[in-house]
Amino acid sequence: MHPAQQPAETHSDYGSGVGLSLDGPASDHIRRQNRREFPGLRHGSPSPHARLARVLVALDRFRGEMSENLMHKAHAAPRCKATSKRSGQPCRAPAVKGWKVCRMHGARGGAPKGKRNGNYRHGARTNDTANAARLIGLLARLARD
């Protein structure tokens, strides 16, 4: 559609041909932001699709919404709680989901328990055996009293 054929309320410098109504303080903010970020917009003639994309990005920023870019979600991930003992600065790596620390600081670390461990020998010193020995000792003390 030619800009002259458009209704007056939907025509703007940044959204011609898209049917968006931009008036008031929101449109002034968008125009100022676009002038800063896209200085060639006033002098060149970008395609209507490029203008629409710029208007939509500016509207999302004005509303405070996050874009669909997945890297924005990655940058917003919770950070590792570990700190350096030398500088005292926190680790800036993202924490592993379900953990407070990153993969370099021990999340999901450690060896498997029991027979799945490569150093397992005979089972005489496992946690189950130690707990059973404690229980037997407790019962023996109770029987003496």
Number of helices: 4
Give the total of domains. 2
Give the low-pLDDT segments. Answer: 8-19
Order of helices and strands: HHHH
Multimerization status: single chain
- For the termini, the CA-CA separation is 98 Å
SS content category: mainly alpha
Q: What is the residue-averaged pLDDT?
A: 75
Largest sheet properties:
none
Shape: rod-shaped
What share of the residues does DSSP label as strand, in percent? under 5%
The whole-angstrom Rg is 32 Å
Overall number of strands? 0
Helix content: 25-40%
Summarize the structure.
The chain is mainly α. The chain has helices at 25-37, 48-63, 70-75, 127-144. It has two domains: 3-73, no CATH class; 77-109, no CATH class.
Please write out the topology.
Elements: H1 25-37, H2 48-63, H3 70-75, H4 127-144
Helix pairs in contact: 1-2
Describe it.
Helices cover 37% and strands 0% of the residues. The protein has helices at 25-37, 48-63, 70-75, 127-144. α1 crosses α2. 6% of the residues are buried.
What brief labels describe this structure?
single chain, 145 residues, mainly alpha, 2 domains, 4 helices
